[in-house]
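Researcher: Next sequence.
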Amino acid sequence: MTSPSRGMAFRSASSSPMPTTSAVDSSPSTASSLSPTPPASTANSDYFLRLSAKFVHFDPVTKGTSVFFDDIQCQIFVVRDNGSAGVRVHSPIASRNFEFAIENKGTILSIKFSPDFRVLAVQRSNKSVEFLNFSENRQIDLVEYSQVCRARSAKILGFCWVSASEIVLITDTQGLESYAIRPEKKSLRSLKNYSVSVNWFLYMPPYLLLSSGPACNILHVFLLRNPGNYQRFNKFEIDIGAQHAVQNHMQPNKLLERDVVLAPVYGLLYVLVIKQVSKLNAGAEVVMYQVKNDGSVRITDILLLECNGRFAVNVLDNLIVVHHQQSKMSKIFDLKLNTRGDSVKYHFPVSSYSIEPYHIKLNIVSIPYELYSSNWAVFLPSIIVDAKLGCLWQLELKTDSLACLIADRVKRIEFLLLRDHDAKSVLIKHLAAYLHNPPDFPACVKSFELLNQKLKQFSTTKPGDEVQRRSVHLEQVEVFRFLLLPLSASLELPHRNIVAVLVEYLRSLLAVGMEPQYYVQELIVNTMVQFKMFHLLRHCVENGVFCDSKPFACLLLSLENMFPPAVQMVLDMLKRLGSSVEEQVEILLAKNEIFAAMRLLQAAGVVQHEAYLTPRKFLEPALTSGDRMLFYSVFRYFQMRNNRLRGSSKFLSEELCDDIVFQFETMFPEDVADRRDVVF
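Model: Next structure:
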């Protein structure tokens, strides 16, 4: 298989064409009958990786058919007779599948579309690259235009699209040549070039890695920005050892392209180098060089493979998967699980298991597929291509099974919180198991801390931080719906354990500075009331476990019949909130505490603004209380207020007190309207 964007393979030359084979018939009838069948052990937890059930099938490599893969656009190009018999484009993305034909002008070495699929770049020699334009409805313009490399002696090793209007040619002696492409004029304009000798290159947008030096171990990293705004990082050298034996002769080592991977992990750029001899054990190792934004490069991590042989690398959900052909095993590494502060961290695999067995249905017969085949070409991030069979799969992670490998339950939650948001259901499943297991309360406490720290980070994440945005987190409503609510209804757990877990979640929210939602506090209060833990409720309210708020105060007020001290708790909370005196007065009036309401008004100095008081609000509860002396005192107070404000004891018509005045005159007929002594 020929690849314009090189991948790793279990072969000595990953960029050379796949060998021609007749093992799989490429006829249309055979191609249409090729389909996957469910793996024999789908439910087996011994497997943590699997090939996707849906795959892309294409015509395999034959004598007249070449296959190319562009891992940037994730497109397979099946080229028949150098394009004259048709070029068929396959992709997991249905909108990128189509077919066209071009003139046969020689053997095609590389072929790629621009990011907007409007220009096709075709390399047929090591001296130039040809271009063909496509319309919006994917009609091809067969009039080609080309670009040759600047130096006659230079050879084009490959090219990469920086944007829809910019392309970079990589040559062996001149290095990097950047061009702006103008499809409407069918021409290119030189933008920039960097002179450096190149042995091979890797491209992971927007980063380009060039290899130079006699041993191919001097690496140059470029950050390609559009248009022509490039940043060149400091070059660095890879230690590959002095020499090795070949047929009883010592030859210098060389760093091969197949042993190097350029990949982002947890939002940081790394250069991964596979070294067959480890200084710590008999196995090989993957040395990880971190490339920082300031251009500095240093070794930060080493993955211990514990075996030797041929390897290929995928990066799946920020997990590094190293496939080993001889043992047919895949080793999974997570850089975040090692929290030691060492300058260079050593990592052992989280798991070392084979990919789940896979079966293919061929002409109604289900046959097992050979995993870790020498025909595999492995591309980042999670693509596996078998050009001999004509299949492209995506490698999938069985997150639930892998998480169960981690015995430390807190570490397990930490591991799941680092995964993609698709792992949310798995995280909820494991958290629910902790909550319903009383001995796991310490793990539950720590898990809530991790959960809410992640929620806090997500709430403050910048829009451009896609790594943080895509990682799993649980909103308060999700914790309430899937964890806390089922827990509160549990009939198996002791009441004390249920309440302890609920309160602990509330405490962890406050510890990270997150405001608990009302429905979370309401559930905790209702659960305490259900279990008649009123004294615990009072203790939590008075010590700030619950967040003071007016809705929460109303919730407490509704408990008055079951827990009379709740009224005073509400008044204290409203005072802490700095609420208006009128709201506190309303509560007292609802309880017919008229004198207490009046005293509260006097203490707050509201009586000085008594013109704004509503008489009926006080007179009506005093009348309905049945206490004649109380009604008399309050009525006389407002008559005096009227005299002070208006020089008359009468109420205004808009105060709507006529019926209350009638009741007063009926109850106290001997009393004169202008009497000034008041019992209060």
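Model: The first strand starts at residue 8 and ends at 9. The chain has two domains: 8-401, 406-516.
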